[in-house]
Each structure stands twice: as C-alpha cells, then as structure tokens.
From TrEMBL:
Domain Methyltransferase: 50-145
InterPro entries: Methyltransf_25 (IPR041698), SAM-dependent_MTases_sf (IPR029063)
Keyword Transmembrane helix: no
GO biological process: methylation
Ranges that cross the membrane: none
MF term (GO), any: methyltransferase activity
A Pfam family it matches: Methyltransf_25
Keywords attached to this entry: Methyltransferase, Transferase
UniProt protein name: S-adenosyl-L-methionine-dependent methyltransferase
Length: 302
C-alpha cells in the first residue's frame, strides 16, 4: 500500500507492491465504500473518458470498465509500469501509461477526462504536495469533470480476546515513522488525524465545486462468515511489513530482515488470537467548474 510520501522524497525508499495484496485490498475497499465511483458523480455517458492515477495493477480501472459501456475509454497512469497487467489481457478500450502525478501531463491528455480517480497513492501526503497533485490532476479534467480521491488514515489496533498481545502488530506500525515524516500531513495510511484537517476546504480553495468528503470505517465490513476483518488485518500487516523491508539497509533505520521476519510471525499469531485493525477510508469528490458558456459535465443522471 504505502509509497513514499512524495515521489521526490529522499526520506523513504520506494516499496514494491504485491499484485495479490493490491487486488485483495481492492475487494475490501470496495466492500467498505460500497461503490467504485462515488454516487455524487453523475453516471458517465457512453463516451466518457476516465483516468485512474497511481493505478497499480489497474484493478479499480478494469472493474469500472466492466461496469460501463465498451464505448467509454479508460487510462491508468502510474509512476512505474511494474504492476501493470499483461498487455494481452487488457481490453481494447483500456490503456496504461507511465506518468508521475506531480509532473505535467502531455498536451494530448489535458482537459480530456470526465472523471479522474486517485486511490492509495501515498502513505502520508503533506498538504502542499496534495495541492500540487490536485492542481496537476485538474488539468486532465474537462470543464465540469470530476475528481475523486480515496485514501486511508487513522489505523488502530484492537484486541477481541482479553489478555492477548498486540505488541508485534503495534511494533510493526510504529516502525513506519519515516513514511509519516513531514509537517501538515493531510491523508494517508500511516497518519492519524488528531484534528479536523479540513480537506474539503482545501479543494474548494483550488476552485473545485460540489466538494464532498465521506469517511467510512473498515468496521462497516460485517460479514463474519467471510472473515473480512481477519483477512483485512493480515493484508495491512503484509503491507506494513513490505514497507519495513524497504528500510532494511537504510542507515540508522534499525530494521533487519531477521527482526522483520520474527515480528511478522508474531504478528500473525496475534491476528490468529483475534487482534484486528480498523482504518478510515476517506473519499473526496469535487467538480471542475464548467466554465463560461461551457456545458456542465454531461451525465445521464443530470
Ligand atoms: C498502493 S498502490 C495502489 C494502486 C491502486 N491505486 C489501487 O488502489 O489498487 C500505489 C500506487 O501508486 C503509485 N504511485 C505512487 N506515487 C505516484 C506518483 N507520484 N505518480 C503516479 N503514481 C504513483 C505507485 O507506483 C503504486 O502503483
């Protein structure tokens, strides 16, 4: 899950993401939110163009593509192609491109998209970086187009059986300080929100309209027979362990492969004994102004 807080950052090394973990995370997230595209965004027209930023394996984009007419077009952008799907498996109306979300997009992409979606691109993004990214992504939107940003925060650990330990899970989470470095963090898996961060106001300040934020807790997942709580906790521990592995060999980090392996084994035993996590899944949407004389973004529900 986690990436360095900024692609330019020297504080935290890049994390190689497991394809299976990302795809499993997609299932938990979609169940937690209950949607792929926020219901405040009008249903896309049959000619809609949709972009997914930090697309990873493209699992969100490919699922959206399945749910819309084949005449829609979909582009997944990512700073690296390492998780892109095999080209032979990609539908003809879907494309994947290498692109850093902080850098200017090619002219052919500007004002080309009805919906631009971002999910889980940062472990802890500073407001200034977030503003930079949002401004850059707004250049992709047609007038009246929508931006959707989904990310996590407020990780917490709980016991479900009295007297059991959650020390290893906690030590893993606490070891991730370099991923939450920086002032004025506004969103991301590694951060806890100590006060109202007024994310909606930041988006309104950038000129976005109809801005709305929803926050869903993962404790919304209530199907005990599917063991979603248990599987979701293991998924996040795997993610955190992957982040710690990237710190092995970093001077002063204190992380070794042996320490991580030991903690991982202990953490999984804790989860066996009922330790679980919750996270908040934050979804913010906003619309680029339609502009003078321009048609408001055309959706079939409008
Ligand atoms: C945790 S994965 C999430 C993948 C996908 N969005 C999902 O929800 O399954 C984070 C992805 O964001 C990408 N990413 C991180 N920083 C980025 C940046 N500055 N520009 C573009 N992609 C970035 C990473 O390469 C990685 O594929």
């Amino acid at each position: 899950m986690a990436q360095p807080r900024d692609i330019d950052s020297k504080l935290a090394p890049t994390v190689e993401e497991g394809v299976e973990r990302l795809d499993e995370q997609h299932i938990f997230t979609t169940k937690t939110l209950g949607f792929l595209i926020h219901p405040n965004i009008p249903a896309p027209s049959p000619t809609a163009k949709i972009a997914d930023i930090g697309t990873g394996t493209g699992i969100w984009l490919l699922d959206v593509a399945k749910s819309l007419p084949p005449t829609c077009q979909f582009t997944g952008f990512d700073a690296t192609s390492s998780s892109f799907p095999e080209s032979s498996t990609i539908p003809s109306n879907v494309a994947f491109k290498i692109q850093d979300m902080y850098r200017p997009f090619p002219p052919s992409e500007l004002e080309a998209y009805d919906i631009v979606a971002v999910r889980f691109t940062s472990s802890g993004i500073q407001r200034a970086d977030w503003i930079r990214a949002v401004k850059n992504l707004m250049t992709l939107l047609k007038p009246g187009g929508w931006l959707q940003w989904i990310d996590s925060c407020n990780f917490a650990l709980y016991n479900s059986v009295p007297g059991t330990s959650r020390a290893a899970c906690q030590e893993i989470y606490d070891g991730l300080d370099s991923f939450r470095a920086g002032d004025d963090l506004v969103l991301g898996l590694m951060m806890r929100e100590g006060r109202n961060l007024r994310r909606e106001e930041t988006w309104r300040g950038l000129g976005l309209e109809d801005v709305h934020e929803d926050v869903f807790s993962t404790d919304r997942l209530q199907e005990p027979e599917l063991r979603l709580r248990d599987k979701g906790t293991r998924n996040i521990v795997e993610c955190f362990v992957g982040c710690l592995e990237s710190l092995v060999g970093v001077e002063g980090s204190g992380w070794t492969t042996q320490r991580i392996e030991r903690l991982n084994a202990e953490a999984m035993k804790e989860v066996d004994q009922g330790v679980y996590h919750t996270l908040d899944q934050v979804c913010i949407v906003g619309r680029k102004p339609a502009g003078d004389g321009a048609e408001k973004h055309g959706g079939e529900n409008e």
